[in-house]
Amino acid sequence: MPGNSVNAPGAESAQTPERSEPGQASAARVAAVVVLAAGAGTRMKSRTPKILHELGGKSMVAHALAAARGLAPERLAAVVRHERDRVAEHIASVDPDAVIVDQDEVPGTGRAVEAAIEALDAAVAAEGGSLAGTVVVTYGDVPLLTTELLAELVREHEAGGNAVTVLTAVLDDATGYGRILRGGDGTVTGIREHKDATEDERAIREVNSGIYAFDAAVLRDALKQVTTENAQGEKYLTDVLAIAREAGGRVAALATTDRWQVEGANDRIQLQALAAEHNRRTVEAWMRAGVTVVDPATTWIDATVRLAEDVTVKPNTQLHGGTVIERDAVIGPDTTLTDVLVGEGATVKRTDGTKAEIGAGATVGPFTYLRPGTRLGPEGKIGAFYETKNAVIGRGAKLSHLGYVGDAEVGEGTNIGCGNITANYDGVNKHRTVIGAHVRTASNTVFVAPVTVGDGAYTGAGAIVRKDVPAGALALSVAPQRNAEGWTEANRAGSPSAAAAAQARTAAAQAREAAETSQSAASPTKEEGK
Question: Which of 278, 320, 401, 438 is catalytic?
């Protein structure tokens, strides 16, 4: 529960396969959402601003902005301060329509929201209107918070005609949190900090999340009355509740038992706990959507990944970025894919792939490295201990084992032998190899780019292909073998190799001598022959 007196961990939602589109979660009109993103996050002990730390493939603030944007607000503002330019640039890349608001020297969440209201008022006035209606305030470090829960908060707020509605959480252990005090009619009468609470008040399990729905007019007027006359010298947003109540407004609360949605991350331990919960929810959502996940405990799926029904994900698999897996594909075990497209019925095991495409019915792995630009055609194969980069591999082509194909095209139905490589780099520039359809290459062929091999051509074992091969030709690199007798003993004297060679030479000489003796004994003499 971030950015308030509770100062607990943070949350947006695990993005699920059925994530609602903007405007679908609530029919209520939301004038604005304010996302507070100005904190330094010193407990992260990082050069990266806290809200830019990632889980589920997106920054915490990106999750928060997605949940906020799902309400379809007329305006969305993000308040920034720490690492201002870096944070503002990131927010703009995630949500280009968000209004960036700078918090000034006056500290506190109350001042941050006040700065946002001033900026939004000015923007609306410039269009000839005025900011009126419901204003939601949330935080940039609540990555598991969902649009659906925010929409429920807005509905509760507007149905009750409330001046303020606070989102609360019910915890088994509320130690350290600000308690929600309610009157007999259920309205909120106050928020009591743990250190100031009585024993009876400490027994209350409902705590403040710091996430609110306000009436815009009430919020605007109340913020003008909030002062910095407190021990911290800050303008507290929580002071708005008392001011609104004193003015006759109704202050209510919406309680959730899903604490993860209102938890924020102040350090890396809390961030990892949120990441694990986000992943658990994401994996569970995909299983409910028809995906088989053999071992959820060792499977990680980013919020941005998309899976079809009947996909199978095996243990120790990580799916990141814009990865898309089509129906009946089998992924894993021990596989990491980032921004990889996998076609229907393909199999990918023990593979590391980035920015690659794998066609329908293709097979990849085990122990395969797909670098960016790899495009494997339908029914194709990239096998064990293979590396590919910037390579287009045709339908049914096979690169079965122990090789490298980079900056190349391999035609349909071609079979690349064991140990083949494309020598694409001359020390300065990269060059391209083009291998035609239905080519057969023997073991340990080296293609020295730039070079083209025509359709239906063959290569012999150990061929070094330095010039183009016509269609249907056999490329050979033939040279007579020369053995330099005694080389090891002459050039590596005293080595184990020299000793083994000498021993073998002596044994061979002894064997020859024994054979000659035996043959001589078996041959008849001239006298015996008469």
Answer: 401
